[in-house]
Fold this protein.
Amino acid sequence: MEKASSAMLEDNENQSVDSRDLPPVVEEFVSVQKIVKWVSEPDSFGRGGSGAKYAPEDNQDFRPSMRPPVPVLTLLDDGSMEQGEEIRLRRERVAIGRTSGDVQLPNDPAISATHAELRRTQWNGGFQWHLHDMGSSNGTFVRCARAVLHENATLILGARRFRLRNPLKPNTVAPVGYDTNPIDGRYLPEAVWPVLIEAIAKPSAVEFSLRSDRLIIGRAGGGGDIQLDDPLLANRHAELKRMRDGSWLISAETTRNGIWVSISTVALTSSCFFRCGEQRFRFVMS
């Protein structure tokens, strides 16, 4: 039997065989060189090479139909919005905390013992992921393009946190002689205009009265209406705009560090960022 096997191997080695014609079973190849050749050269599936071409109609990638898709949660490296430790979310709930949970970050004192939780629910024939703050001391934040600010919201701009003090509520009664629904912000007295105040309990906390319908927030010397001495800000970092109902909308410019707004519960998009303590996360639905 051994002689017969040797003869068969010698015959196979003398034959010129196109790797694309070989069956995709590595165990059938005795020679290491043949295994390397099979792995490194393009085959009919385009493995190992960049020259694979498909028919125009053959453009649909495989997606599971009987189980939920698996998103990737990345614990971003310091100073990066791309690289970090990746975790694939295969369970319905994933808890984040300093000393408990599925993702533990014991080196960050700004993270509560149980800080936040990611939850998967069925929605509209598919699945939706939500981010929940679990009553953390320092809040859970999402990076936003736009957000309507309310009196309990905390806003991170650069290295500082801000809140709106005395924001006008949509149901506030307008001055006599004007329509009360909706409120036209152009006719509001200055007494009801809110203040953007730094969310720290220190005498050095800065505050800015919002006395215009539209204000630009940016770095000191950048020409904005509200200027902060903070290298993490751009000259034009964000815009605050008062809406007709009296609420305030903040919109981010295209900046490196963006704006972050606190949440209690929020539905996650297919690609987004959030923050617990000083740890930033990226959530991507595959």
Observations:
- The first strand starts at residue 72 and ends at 76.
- The chain is about 10% helix and 35% strand.
